[in-house]
């Protein structure tokens, strides 16, 4: 599968100055493998993944299971 990054990079191949600029400022967007390989273990959603502490939930599932796995809300309303 071709990512948006690869598609734009291909069109800029003939324009070295613009290409180098694009690589310089957009290289952090090269993460197709990383972004797609991390999925929520509950609903397989690849977006909004929370990998910290080995949770591997998406933000929606985290909201639902956080209480059960021992997280608690601090603040006025607990
Ligand atoms: Zn989920």
Concise synopsis of the structure shown:
This protein is mostly helical and 78 residues long. The chain is 41% helix and 5% strand. The protein has two domains: 1-37, no CATH class; 39-78, 30s Ribosomal Protein S14, Chain N.
Strand order in the largest sheet: 1-2
Q: What best-fitting shape do the alpha-carbon axes yield?
A: elongated
What is the β-strand count? 2
- How many helices? The count is 4
**Any guess at the CATH architecture of the largest domain?**
Irregular
Outline the secondary-structure elements:
Layout: H1 4-11, H2 16-26, H3 32-37, E1 49-50, E2 57-58, H4 59-65
Antiparallel strand pairs: 1-2
Bound molecules: zinc ion.
Zinc ion binds at residues 40, 42-43, 45, 57-58, 60-61.
What are the defining features of this structure?
single chain; 78 residues; 30s Ribosomal Protein S14, Chain N; two-stranded antiparallel sheet; binds zinc ion
Provide an overview of this structure.
- The protein folds into two domains: 1-37, no CATH class; 39-78, Irregular (30s Ribosomal Protein S14, Chain N), CATH 4.10.830.10.
- The chain has helices spanning 4-11, 16-26, 32-37, 59-65; strands at residues 49-50, 57-58.
- The longest helix is centred in the first third of the chain and has 11 residues, at 16-26.
- The chain has 78 residues and is mainly alpha-helical.
- It has a two-stranded antiparallel sheet.
- It binds zinc ion (ZN).
- Zinc ion is lined by residues 40, 42-43, 45, 57-58, 60-61.
């Amino acid at each position: 599968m071709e990512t948006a990054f690869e598609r734009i990079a291909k069109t800029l191949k003939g324009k070295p100055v613009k290409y180098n600029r694009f690589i310089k400022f957009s290289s952090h967007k090269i993460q197709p493998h990383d972004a797609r390989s991390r999925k929520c273990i509950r609903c397989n959603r690849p977006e909004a993944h929370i990998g910290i502490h080995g949770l591997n939930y998406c933000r929606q599932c985290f909201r639902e299971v956080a209480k059960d796995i021992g997280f608690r809300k601090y603040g006025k309303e607990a």
